[in-house]
Fold:
Amino acid sequence: MTYSTTVGAELELNLLDRQGYLANRADDVLADLKRRSNRYVSESSMTQVEFNSEPASSIRELYNRAKNQLSDVLEPVCLSHGVQPASMSEYGAGRGVWRDGNERYDVYPRIIGETSNSELNRISGIHLHFSQHPDRKLDQYKVLIALDPSFAFASTSPIYDLRNGLNCHRVNLTRNMLFSEFPLHCKLPGYPTSLKDIEAENQLRHQQWMQKAIEAGIPEETFKELFSPENTGYHPIRKRDEEKFGPTGTFEVRIFDSAPLDILAGIAALYKGFQDRVFNDQIPVTVANADGRYSFSSSRIVLPTTDTLRGFERSAISRGLRSNGIQNYLDQALWFASRGLSEEDRKYLDVLNNSLSVSANPAEELLSFMVEKGIYGKAFTPDQCAQANLFMRDRYLKGLLSTN
Structure:
């Protein structure tokens, strides 16, 4: 019997006014959305609206459902309020207002500090949920770790606080800066040797977070009502076993920048195809015994070492898809994954293959646009960042116009 991983998505979007500046109108938009759909929720910033898809058994199903929601529900509601959604983080054209009154959100600044929390709320991302395989959860988790360099496909954050210089500020902020005191909460994890390792790390992360909260004056019972070992901190992959995620539970991959829907679908196809091929062809999964080595074949998967992945991470943060090492790695991953997809789902990989062929993700596209407009350098004005926002709005719309 063929196994098919289900996939769901959370997509965080920023609201812009007609001039491209951030618009803190999320509550107005969400009030209207609630009368039309149950797929939208608030986020920590008043400029953000989050779309949550239903689980889908195919990428075509995921894309079409999301496209219908974003085009036919979110778009007209936003336009009626004089705002427009875009898949991006904050660049510096305006500033999102902190959403207070949410107990969970209110704990963060007391744990990581007001400044780090403020910076955290300026970034937007995508979370992908994959059903857990009943018999190969450990291998599945390892594969998800190994696919981490795919965040290079999704970067929409080359500008941060009016400055550029990196291809992906968002991953740099979360992994290297804002949670610097809590490496278990942000760094890419090492490969576990058992499912008990995952649980032990969850428990340790939860204990560290709770200790800091107690030191900040938050009662232990209050903390435990807000956080569990499965949902503490900002770590890249969560094993979620709660009942609300269905009978299989999910692995939640949280590494990606907010990105247009065609790219979201492409990445979902990469992950689904890779996992399903491993499962259905019963391919054993191992980890390389030396840095720089890996292979994906029908007989065996050899995943790169953690040190190799961290080297890819540094390259992707700095250079995106312009790194030869990342290009070669992702090209092999795409080829392997394509053989695990149906013919109709395979075409969703096209956008990723095209990105590799020109060594450009949305971050590179944005900076090229800025240069064409005569805007370049290491710093921008708010008006220039507003132009960048409008470019990302156009790129978001193109992601909704795919004929797939």
User: Anything to note?
Assistant: DSSP finds 15 helices and ten strands in the chain. The chain has a mean pLDDT of 96. The longest strand covers residues 7-16.
